[in-house]
Amino acid sequence: MPRKKKPVIEYRHYSLPINFPILLLSGERWKISDIKSEHLHFHNHLEIGICHSDSGIMEIKGEAVPFKAGDVTFIPRYLPHTTYSSPNEASLWSYLFFSPEELFQHSFKSSAYSNFEPNLWAIKGMNCIVNKEEHPKVYTLATSVVEELKHKNPYYQESSYGLLLSLYIELLRIHSRNELVAEQETEHNLKGDFVIAPVLEYITKNYMTPMSINDLADLCHLSITHFRRKFHEIMGTAPLDFLNSTRIEEACKQLKSTDASILSISEQVGFQSISSFNRCFSKLMGESPKQWRKGAHTEAQSAKASILEFTGWV
């Protein structure tokens, strides 16, 4: 009897626009088919989705949660999920990606809000979908942000920022009311499915500092051997390769947006030598940092750093 296939998980690593770090994906391309994908996926940024038409199912943390037109979805980074439409339908979506800590760092008082995002361990799949009838303000704010980013009228960035901040606060309020859940149980369930989430979070925030495989394994409470194997199964790459790809993505931002020297940038993103930085950069980007910087003003060149994807088995 053939062995049952393991589900596949994809990591979609999005680079946000440098000057205004909000990424909008919208249009006819973002129609979701009724074919259930074998691939779960997750992102390095928080995702807000707006369903414009039809209905279907979103699978989140093992829960199958129905959605319909008018719903707004709220998916914290590193939370595996997938979406498919009802039979014979193709739901149309718009998606917003951003990092709350990066975008709203000057709007929140850090002393009062140490963590801008919901607790990944405690969130329930059913609470990631917000109904238009129950929360019309959320739907209005979400669609308004999308319209501002689409049309780019004068002062659209200021308007988008204010609307998105209001939207995010509404979503945090809704989540906090729904957080009456047994955290011990939910933490156990999520870790069973996605034990490496603490490492992804740690690398995202601390990529510029020295870290060893021992440090990363300790974060997951795993032996080094088990951690290496589990990380590669899920991400399709080694832990330190993933760390370097995160550093290179940040280096691309700095190469494009600053006049800092390549040596200075390599040190700022965590490389111990310029030779290791050049070697890793060329491997991932297909050319040297100097060559990449020369062409970074064109859309075709900058797009090379837009998405880094890893695929593995879980």
Written account of the structure:
This protein has 314 residues and is an alpha+beta fold. The protein has helices at residues 100-103, 136-151, 156-177, 183-193, 197-206, 213-219, 224-235, 239-257, 262-268, 274-285, 289-295, 299-302, and strands at residues 8-14, 23-25, 31-32, 39-43, 46-51, 55-60, 63-68, 72-75, 81-85, 91-98, 129-130, 307-313. The chain contains twelve helices and twelve strands. It is globular. Strands 2, 3, 5, 8, 10 and 11 form a six-stranded antiparallel β-sheet that branches. A three-stranded mixed β-sheet has the order 4-1-12. Strands 7-6-9 form a three-stranded antiparallel β-sheet, with no helix packed on it.
Give a quick set of tags describing it.
six-stranded antiparallel β-sheet, 19% strand, single chain, globular, 314 residues, 42% helix, alpha+beta
